[in-house]
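Hello again,

I reread your note about wanting to compare the complex against the isolated chains. To keep things tidy I'm splitting this into two emails, and this first one only covers the full assembly. Below are the input lines as submitted, including protein chains and any nucleic acid or small-molecule components. They are followed by the predicted structure of everything together. The single-chain runs will come separately.
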Amino acid sequence: MPTPITSTLTSDQQATTGEALQGTVVDLIDLSLIAKQAHWNVLGRNFRSVHLALDELVTVARDFTDEAAERSTAIGVSPDGRASTVAGQSSAKGIGEGWTSDEDVINIVVENLAAIIDRLRARIAVTEEADPVTQDLLISITARLEQLHWMWQAQVA
Amino acid sequence: MPTPITSTLTSDQQATTGEALQGTVVDLIDLSLIAKQAHWNVLGRNFRSVHLALDELVTVARDFTDEAAERSTAIGVSPDGRASTVAGQSSAKGIGEGWTSDEDVINIVVENLAAIIDRLRARIAVTEEADPVTQDLLISITARLEQLHWMWQAQVA
Amino acid sequence: MPTPITSTLTSDQQATTGEALQGTVVDLIDLSLIAKQAHWNVLGRNFRSVHLALDELVTVARDFTDEAAERSTAIGVSPDGRASTVAGQSSAKGIGEGWTSDEDVINIVVENLAAIIDRLRARIAVTEEADPVTQDLLISITARLEQLHWMWQAQVA
Amino acid sequence: MPTPITSTLTSDQQATTGEALQGTVVDLIDLSLIAKQAHWNVLGRNFRSVHLALDELVTVARDFTDEAAERSTAIGVSPDGRASTVAGQSSAKGIGEGWTSDEDVINIVVENLAAIIDRLRARIAVTEEADPVTQDLLISITARLEQLHWMWQAQVA
Amino acid sequence: MPTPITSTLTSDQQATTGEALQGTVVDLIDLSLIAKQAHWNVLGRNFRSVHLALDELVTVARDFTDEAAERSTAIGVSPDGRASTVAGQSSAKGIGEGWTSDEDVINIVVENLAAIIDRLRARIAVTEEADPVTQDLLISITARLEQLHWMWQAQVA
Amino acid sequence: MPTPITSTLTSDQQATTGEALQGTVVDLIDLSLIAKQAHWNVLGRNFRSVHLALDELVTVARDFTDEAAERSTAIGVSPDGRASTVAGQSSAKGIGEGWTSDEDVINIVVENLAAIIDRLRARIAVTEEADPVTQDLLISITARLEQLHWMWQAQVA
Amino acid sequence: MPTPITSTLTSDQQATTGEALQGTVVDLIDLSLIAKQAHWNVLGRNFRSVHLALDELVTVARDFTDEAAERSTAIGVSPDGRASTVAGQSSAKGIGEGWTSDEDVINIVVENLAAIIDRLRARIAVTEEADPVTQDLLISITARLEQLHWMWQAQVA
Amino acid sequence: MPTPITSTLTSDQQATTGEALQGTVVDLIDLSLIAKQAHWNVLGRNFRSVHLALDELVTVARDFTDEAAERSTAIGVSPDGRASTVAGQSSAKGIGEGWTSDEDVINIVVENLAAIIDRLRARIAVTEEADPVTQDLLISITARLEQLHWMWQAQVA
Amino acid sequence: MPTPITSTLTSDQQATTGEALQGTVVDLIDLSLIAKQAHWNVLGRNFRSVHLALDELVTVARDFTDEAAERSTAIGVSPDGRASTVAGQSSAKGIGEGWTSDEDVINIVVENLAAIIDRLRARIAVTEEADPVTQDLLISITARLEQLHWMWQAQVA
Amino acid sequence: MPTPITSTLTSDQQATTGEALQGTVVDLIDLSLIAKQAHWNVLGRNFRSVHLALDELVTVARDFTDEAAERSTAIGVSPDGRASTVAGQSSAKGIGEGWTSDEDVINIVVENLAAIIDRLRARIAVTEEADPVTQDLLISITARLEQLHWMWQAQVA
Amino acid sequence: MPTPITSTLTSDQQATTGEALQGTVVDLIDLSLIAKQAHWNVLGRNFRSVHLALDELVTVARDFTDEAAERSTAIGVSPDGRASTVAGQSSAKGIGEGWTSDEDVINIVVENLAAIIDRLRARIAVTEEADPVTQDLLISITARLEQLHWMWQAQVA
Amino acid sequence: MPTPITSTLTSDQQATTGEALQGTVVDLIDLSLIAKQAHWNVLGRNFRSVHLALDELVTVARDFTDEAAERSTAIGVSPDGRASTVAGQSSAKGIGEGWTSDEDVINIVVENLAAIIDRLRARIAVTEEADPVTQDLLISITARLEQLHWMWQAQVA
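Full-complex prediction:
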């Protein structure tokens, strides 16, 4: 099927922007699955606090996933958020299996957020010329994830 | 780490029930990812109707994922909902990449629901003796998915 | 038109379950009409209290009608809730025409609830093997109607 | 029991108005049952849209039923909304049994609304002298049903 | 000060309509005060039910007071709802001082509603030619008060 | 395309009523644009109060526009609310360009409301025979606009 | 009927407290009627602001009326809030008839509040010994009325 | 463990106030259990009205229990609200076992409220010097319970 | 008074089911009192988290108490939830008096939940034959308490 | 009147930005009128879906109109959103008169959105230097309209 | 400007009360700034719990600031809550600059609350004669701050 | 303590951005205190309108303070919002002590907003290179403050 959704971007702009958004979609889905995994498996004195904060992180990750994927459709690029794609392309650090202590969970969240933010910063740079509308969305996502990065890091600082 | 959460189940009951729940968690996460994928990529005259119905399906899948995973923790079995686990163990039929017509999306949803319901029916049977509390949850999930299966099938009936 | 909605039930299970659900749909629609009839025609010192309680009963009856009818569609059996079907098949005791005293209304509600609960108890028994998902719904309906039966009976106890 | 509720209407006015309201109550209950029947049995590509619109129609029919019946009590005339009365006196066109295509459902709704509106227009005329308060209610009901008639007819126009 | 608010009514229409509205304002304020008085002083087995129903009556009376008074201003006639005006001009039957049994309260409410409805019916007739916009408001008020009249009368029917 | 929406009105009634509604639609859209224009351009000590009151007027005008236009469709007459139609057919007085003092704005609103009410009064008269259902809507619109006319006029009275 | 509601107060305490509460009930009802009268009849550049503020005053007066009257019943003293009682016993300053300028309305509100607060201060003093529970209510009423007194006075300061 | 929470009260003030609050906590928990017991076991024509009013009483008792207990912690005195403490120290009159007629329930509630109010009045007196902050809370509790005492007594007055 | 509420259960079924429900009512009331006691007396670094989680536990215990007690009335067995009954019959482990560290509170909650769940599992078994409707309620209660048991145990795992 | 609202922009920046905003205001008002026109006149099998989606588009257009117009006032440039201005200056494609099929409506919406987005992209470019605050608003508007453009185009893709 | 707001207090009472309120306003503003400062700068394992609790404290401090300042205006004394006044007059203990551990934050909050409560207790004493209405407000503020003092102290007890 | 929160910014970027945010935090806190001071001390005919608008300004200032301070923490720079810091570093114009006329208040607000906006415009420029995420936040704050600046200036224009 030829590309069915048209946009005002040139094909170069579309390619650059589409790649930035596809990477963002995959990273955020993985972040939501990692945070849910931790939400269920966390143990320790701070269980309740961490368990609740993880669900806030899941909500953030899910909402931005949708915004990034629908931005991709808006510029005419089909997004791919299937399990195997996420498993294969994510730039997140992941999480091990089984019950995990609250300290370990906090460190895992901080590491994963740092890795994803790093990629987002690069995507903000490359989309500045290609599509300022997409850049603005990436800035919003980065702003929120950096806020959460501080909140999680503050627990081990 | 030895199993940190205790329950009243025998280890046989725990193994049977834990396996049923782990399979359910994986199937439901995959269902939520498939439905989101379709939500973004659907095209056609019924776009709006299908697009909205898919988000209702996503919500259902996500809510039951959480209930199944937290039932697993309640019986002392660590659930695993990571992307690679989902990609490797899901019993769902999946969805192809790229833009997809509304007719195809409807058929894909019907097939995936049918496959997952089939597995749930089997798990209802095996948990009857092992843990009636878990069985009750699986019955609730099946009731809702069978209702959705009718609604999606009615569109192509 | 051949049956357009498929399910995992055998045709025997489908027949048994479908019959139980059709009877439930008819009984509950009739209950909602009887309760509305009483809601309008009740007279007496306890008018306000009975008038309000009847609307709660109407809401319960309507909500469970929908759940029972949609469970029927989910197993591939077309439900029938038309006025003539209700008039012909209901197992409820009914209500006479015209203004009715509050005492009479209370007795009428108690009798109708008792008759419907009796039929539901039988349907819980026959669906245990045929379809535990449907049985679970019938148990929920019975639980609520038995609670209301107590509340109405308590007024004349 | 002699008429227990008094009003400022003469007995002629009461008879004319009471008849108009009783007819309206019966028609609207039947409309609500027909719409629910269609809500459960509709099939086809527009299933979801029609299924949802039918529930809006049910809500409208139920709310106006209550207003018409309570207007009847307010003028001292006992309303009758029992299943057998509805089955025997309704001026609606009805609906056949079993699964029904979305196209057929739309036509059935349009026909039923047209028949009921026709009767309401006549009742507006006869109540103008008898009771302007009741006429005002009938005008409100007609306004809403004519709006819905347009919306349903627009689907086949 | 000369009349500061202009309208499309002739001065005859304005006089007729203004008088109808002023009478309605006074009657409704008095009704709200009578109902509050009864709300505080009622005694007896049905205390709670009557106490609550009286507050619903107060709310109705207050809301319609405001609508009638602001309709008066809209046609350029200053409304008068001061205590002494209400005490001097009300067509309501009033209520005696001190604790009052629930049976007496119900009869008092029925009598007062009947007297006010009677006056409203006359005002509907006289405003038909003078101002159909005001007539429509008076019809709305009458419809609601007649509904409440039935509900209160039903308690002693 | 021949008229696709049917109604119970004769073609004369339809023409009379359709014309009344089309004029109302145009006047109300223009009123909403005038009020928004004033909302942005008002200056002066009463800026905040006038700015807020204008948005209430916008909301009223928009809601009644929709009711009038959908009443037109319900009787089978296509409404026209396009910018050029509004610019060409409106009976409102309009508003000048640029920043405007609060006193001027109040006078502009009073004049525009007066002009539109005048036309509505005439339409109430002509639709009484043609279609009482439409007349009832025009009465509702007039009632609300006359209330607002008082409120705005009171500021300069 | 002998006093049907008992309390822990001596008959002296009951008399003192009952008198304080009866005076408060009457003053507050009168305040609510005066404020409504002004709400309808106010004219001038600050119409909207004063019109809205008067409704807040009405709400305050009505809520405290109920609290004072129900405190009276709680100590076994029947409250009297009928129109003629209010007209005869109120310590408020009242308001003249007809359209009133916003400046005059503000001064009228300030005067009436001042008169009522003065009486409340005296009642706080006399109930300190008689019934600290009632005193606490009178302090609450005074606190809120003094806040409103400031807000109204600030408009003419 | 030495007293871990400090306050500005002297140890005498703390002892007096702590004792008043502990008695209040116990009485209110008992009141909530008595009211729930009656809520379940009441029979008779006024079942619904009494059943609902008892749940309002339960809510009041529970909310004030929490306020009294947390006031105790705020002054450094550990509150005790365990079942055996309530069973041993309550000054309420209690309720017999088994189904109870609505008339008996009303009398039981009136008696229990009277007994608890009596104790609260004494505690208001003793805390005046010891801690005006606690006294203010006890006044609030008494005000509400005396209001409820009137409402329940009014049913048998 | 002979048993005033009838049901479809045999007297054996009624006895078995009634006993299971009475035990559940007592255990849950005690759980709510123990959790409140801990809510007030907890000390330590995790005070806030534990304090809030205890109130969630109180809400759960109270809601299920009501459901179990009203299920008992529905089968015609009078429930008993008075303080002395709770103090005498509870199968919970209880809690000591005075300020308690957060670690101790967590262990106390885990122990009490484990004891109550153990009894509920036995009651699920004995009600399977006697009354599947009651069994379904006991399964719901167990599901929720086992979830909470995991959440509290996770804090010390 | 000289420009009464000051800003930090130079007069060149103000002119460039004001022009961009004025064009946006006009385009968005026209879009809202076109979408409403289609909302009323659409016919066809997808009537309901298109009818609802058009109202979402109206809401978006109205909200952004207000933001753009108030951004204009914030930089000291009076916006002009009167009917004749819109009719004369809009860059939208418009819509024909009369009943319109759902397919045609979808194409009309897609075309109008494309034209407006094209203009917005140009305005984003010219305001980058002139006023980044305005540019940020234009980016937000474009982001949302491009999302809607995809959703409408997807229906014909 | 001479004092523009009048009250019933003598000038001595006004001076005493005004001073008490001014001190309270300053202390509460400082408390809100200290709590916000801690909200941003807290670090450590209990970050999330402390971070959230601090915002509750901010809300309490802000709400009471407004009540105290508006009580001051109500008695005719202009309150002063400017930054330099707060910096110069506050009786709070303050907080150091920079990142702060959660343990230190808890101790800082406890100390600041203790200092402010101490001052409030003295103000309750001095206003008893001067103005019982103000005293009642100071009691409310103290009650809430002492509750929060317990909650914070419990974390280090 | 070394900087405990890491970010992707270089230390130069961090210094530039941190300084911009610290200035913004201080200015916004001061704005909130100035607006509250005016909220309490304003006098004059427009008291109510200005009093309400000031609270909206307070809410805006407080919300943006939090966003700016938490953006500072997110980039690893500790924000300082203590009273003495605000008193010493604010770039706002401030407000005099005592009662202030509404005209003066409006001018004071306009001046303070202008001064703060001026500083924000400069910070937008310096953060463009240093941190586009922070720049985006500063643009949002400026957009809202410039809107408010127009609204306040319009009152004296």
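For quick reference: DSSP finds five helices and two strands in chain E.

B.
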